[in-house]
Design goal:
Blueprint lengths: L11 E3 L18 E2 L1 H11 L3 H8 E3 L5 E3 L1 E2 L2 E2 L17 H5 L7 E2 L2 E2 L1 H6 L7 E3 L1 H14 L3
Antiparallel strand pairs: 1-9, 2-4, 3-4, 5-6, 7-8
Length: 145
């Protein structure tokens, strides 16, 4: 469950620098989970059928979750020259809500792990508690069975 009380009253700053780190594997962590709606949206956006998209761009993990395939250590949809997402308009909830995840915020600030991952934390636009909470809830709800 999202916890807005984890966020300071003034909110948190974040600015995407397009470094690509959030779309790159970190050790064994290389996961972008997809629900059925996201698969459909991405298949449509990329102009392939759902079965083809599933077969060529996703896999099911050992627990049955559908995930995007990575190419080497990068998300398949991360442009290697620009570090831009080639499916930005159709990107999954996990990507849309980053970095406003419960696991990234600790005691009113960005966690140490989050700060090591993303150079854009603490800079740029100030996101309000309401904006952050909305994204946290969206992420949490996407994880429910």
């Amino acid at each position: 469950m999202a916890q807005a009380d984890k966020v300071p009253a003034e909110g948190l700053r974040f600015e995407c620098t397009q470094c690509g780190e959030c779309c790159t594997a970190r050790g064994e962590y290389a996961y972008v989970y997809l629900n059925a709606e996201e698969v459909e949206r991405l298949a449509d956006f990329t102009g392939v059928s759902i079965p083809v998209f599933k077969r060529e761009r996703t896999f099911r993990d050992e627990e049955g979750w559908r995930q995007l395939r990575f190419e080497g250590d990068r998300c398949f949809f991360l442009d290697s020259e620009t570090n831009a997402c080639s499916v930005y308009e159709a990107r999954p909830i996990q990507c849309r809500t980053f970095p406003f995840w419960n696991s990234m915020i600790d005691r009113g600030n960005w966690s140490e792990d989050a700060l090591r991952l993303c150079e854009g934390l603490g800079r740029g636009r100030l996101y309000s508690v309401e904006e952050i909470h909305k994204r946290m809830v969206e992420m949490d709800e996407s994880e429910e069975d």
